[in-house]
Every structure is written in structure tokens, then in C-alpha cells.
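User: Is it possible to get a 3D structure for a protein together with its bound compound? The compound here is magnesium ion. I've pasted both below.
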Amino acid sequence: MAIEPQSIEDVAGGLQATGYLAGEQTALVSYLAARLGKPVLVEGPAGVGKTELAKALASYLERRLIRLQCYEGLDEAKALYEWNYRKQLLRIQAEAQGAGWDAVQDDIFGEEFLLERPLMTAIASPDPVVLLVDEIDKTDQEFEAMLLELLSDFQISVPELGAITARTHPVVVLTSNNSRELTEALKRRCLYLWLDYPSTEHELAIVTLHVPGLPQAVTRRLVELVALVRELDLKKPPSIAESIDWARALLLLGADDLTPEVFRSTMSIIVKHRTDLDTVAERVGVKLAAPAAS
Ligand SMILES: Nc1ncnc2c1ncn2[C@@H]1O[C@H](COP(=O)(O)OP(=O)(O)OP(=O)(O)O)[C@@H](O)[C@H]1O
Ligand SMILES: [Mg+2]
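Assistant: Yes, that's possible. Here is the predicted structure of the complex:
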């Protein structure tokens, strides 16, 4: 059966056991979300573990993860439910002539002809789930308003069927990359978690967890360099995901030191814009080379 966390430490430990190293604030907000049944809005730059948090929570709480990936133009038919027109049509055609339209109509608007989309699945699930509404900032405000209603009432009304009410309370995680400001109304109903780039020690622990084979000294150097690169004014600063990729690459290449040469030849793993590459090569590459030259 689903797990009910008893303390913040419980949550931190449980998430860690699934491979997610939560910071203090993350553990606190996750605990509150699970206990108070309030949705969490997680905001922050790309690749800092927003989506992963929802996955880790599902795994720790032993709940099914239901994911709604948002995109521009996402509508209710793809998020809530849709009638299965093809099946309805077949049903109508299969009906022997003479049967009343009323009978057929009652039939084709039954649950059997409903195509459940993620929000409906989360509401209708007999077991408690974790609902991830990923990148909510990609949708428009109308969609947000629809979601709001759902998040306050935990029910969906289908005109032909009546209201479908949640049998269990889902843990809801909404993520946003800040591409647009979300409405106050949405924020008011959610707990808020700002996920930023982690501290050096925290990132060291995360990268070590993902790539245990890389010598610790190299991992530390890597994390320090990533922190340096993040301080530059780049179009796209490297994320945790890229630190992990870089560590994997270094392990594969058998690098036992982050020399200026190794840095230069592999830095495209963490920096992915032409202009950023120049900036990083100049500012960090030179810094790296300097002590050796003098
Ligand atoms: N606290 C953490 N503990 C363990 N791994 C982490 C942590 N934070 C991030 N990661 C790793 O970083 C990767 C990227 O995280 P994730 O995909 O969740 O980022 P995101 O914030 O959703 O980014 P985007 O905004 O681009 O979708 C994950 O695959 C995960 O392996
Ligand atoms: Mg994500």
C-alpha cells in the first residue's frame, strides 16, 4: 500500500533511497505536500531536478506516476478525456436496424466509450497516484484555469456521465521553467518550491551517486568547474544533468585529471552555444592553463 511519510527526515531518506538527493527545502515541501494534500509548484532553471523530483516521489511513496506533458495548444481532449468516436461509430453501425436511437445514445456515452487522458486517469484511479503536470508554463491561461478547478475540487464533470470525483487524493507536482509568469490564482493553491543550481557539496554528492566510478578528485574538480562556468554570463548555463553527462564521459575516456586539454576537448558536453563556447574557453580554459604555464 502507499506510504505515508512521518517526518521530513523520512522523506529525505526515502527520496535518497530512490537515487534523488533532496535539499532541505525540497524535503520539507515534499513532506508537506504528501501530508496536506496540496499541489506543489516547482520552478527553476532547466535540468535542476524538477521532473525527477516527481518521479522520485512516486517511487518512494510507492504510487503510480501519471504524467501530463504540457505543450502549446494542449487542450482538454488531450488532458482530460475524449469520446472514442470511432468506437461509437462502429457501435451505431453494428446496431440492428430498428433499435431506438435513445438506446444507442445511452450506450455510446457510457464509460466504455470514454478515452481517459492523464488528468482523468489520476482522478479516477482507485489507488493514490502522483500526478506530474510537467512544464505548465507552456500552456495558455485558459488551460491553467481549467486545471485550477480540478486541483481545488478534485473532480471532473462529464456532461453525459456526471461528475467523476477523486476516490483517492493524488500528490500533484507542477513544474515550470518560468517561460511565462503563472497566475496568482494558481500559485495561491500550491505550495511553492524554487529549485536552483545546487551548492558544490550537494552537486558533488549527486554526481558521485550517478557516476560512482569516477575518481573523487576528478568529480570534485568537475563540479567546481561547472560552478565557475555557471558564474559566467552564458546563454545556457550547464545543468545538473550536464554535470552528470560530463562525469560519464570522463569516466568512459578514462580521464584521471581535468587538464586544460581534457577540459577543452570535452567542454561541449556542458556548454552548447557557439558564443558560450568561446566565452568559456577564454575565461575558464585560460584560467585552467595558467598555473601550469607559470
Ligand atoms: N537532487 C538530485 N538528485 C539526484 N539526481 C538529480 C537531482 N537533481 C537532478 N538530478 C539529475 O538531473 C537530471 C535532470 O533533472 P530533471 O530532468 O528533473 O530536470 P528538470 O528540472 O525537469 O529540467 P527541465 O526544466 O529541462 O525539464 C535527472 O535525470 C537526474 O538524474
Ligand atoms: Mg523537466
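The longest helix spans residues 274-293. Strands lie at 40-43, 64-69, 81-83, 114-116, 129-134, 155-158, 162-165, 171-176, 191-194.
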